[in-house]
From TrEMBL:
Source species taxonomy: Bacteria, Candidatus Campbelliibacteriota
Organism: Candidatus Campbellbacteria bacterium RIFCSPHIGHO2_01_FULL_34_10
Pfam families, per database record: Hydrolase_3
Protein name: Uncharacterized protein
GO cellular component: cytosol
GO molecular function: magnesium ion binding; phosphatase activity
Record-level GO BP terms: GDP-mannose biosynthetic process
Segments forming a coiled coil: none
Highest taxon of the lineage: Bacteria
Length: 249
């Protein structure tokens, strides 16, 4: 299929968790951007996209074909006149953020499995439109993240607790150690549907790449949108698919 719009999750799909994009991936995405539109959609803040991905793209990359969707699609940026411009943002209210943070702190206190021996930085991050819990902290090493919850059972257990206590919000499992909480209805399906409409691109011309395409995972909602889905196990598999695609198109 000759797709016009490519959606990519960030951590676990384009990069390793909270890691910078490598040169090979940056060059592949740059090649894709010559003729295709690309949206990177993730629960991260815009600043993390810039530090982890945008700043590593080669000189001359066609940034006007690149779009950034932070906060799992609850926010959207485009590149115009040499600047990144916010198109929309669906933020949590101060009261909502306080409630989510308070309940998360209580869950951590009441459940020993959420307090590992060593924590690297804050476990709770307020991103404005999303609150993210990272069990090992925001700055934990990638290898330790991979070992903490490979079966996803710990994060699913936390999600079950939060689904009960924060039923008016969207709760999803993401990354290697994290759980994300957002406004109800704000998920990757929301972002894909809204952005596809803004860019006037039909669903049959869109493909989504993600690693957390399982029930409760933060990429799973993409499967409800009608776009093509490419599940990957990590950045290397994403590279392999894109190399093959670029050869044929």
């Amino acid at each position: 299929m000759n797709y016009e719009l490519f959606f990519f999750d960030l951590d676990g799909t384009i990069t390793e968790s909270k890691s910078n994009v490598d040169d090979e991936m940056a060059n592949i995405i740059s090649q894709l951007l010559k003729h295709k539109k690309v949206v990177i959609i993730s629960g991260a803040r815009f600043s993390q996209f810039k530090e982890q991905f945008i700043d590593f793209l080669p000189n001359g990359t066609n940034l006007e074909n690149l779009y950034i969707a932070p906060l799992t699609g609850g926010s959207f940026y485009s590149f115009k006149d040499d600047n990144w411009v916010k198109v929309y943002e669906d933020a949590l209210s101060p009261e909502e953020r306080l409630k989510i943070t308070s309940i998360l702190k209580r869950a951590i206190k009441d459940n020993d499995f959420l307090t590992p021996e060593k924590i690297y930085g804050d476990q709770i991050e307020d991103r404005g439109g999303q609150i993210t819990f990272s069990a090992l902290g925001q700055k934990s090493p990638v290898e330790e993240k991979k070992l903490w919850d490979p079966s996803i059972e710990k994060r699913k257990a936390l999600k079950k607790i939060l689904d009960k206590d924060l039923s008016e919000f969207e709760v999803s499992v993401g990354g290697s150690t994290s759980v994300d909480i957002r406004k109800k209805g704000i998920d990757k399906a929301y972002g894909i549907n809204k952005i596809a409409s803004l860019l006037s691109i039909p669903k049959e011309k869109i493909i989504f790449f993600g690693d957390a395409i399982f029930e409760g995972g933060n990429d799973y909602s993409a499967t409800t949108t009608g776009v093509a889905i490419q599940k990957v196990s990590g950045p290397e598999e994403t590279k392999s698919f894109l190399k093959e695609y670029l050869k044929k198109n």
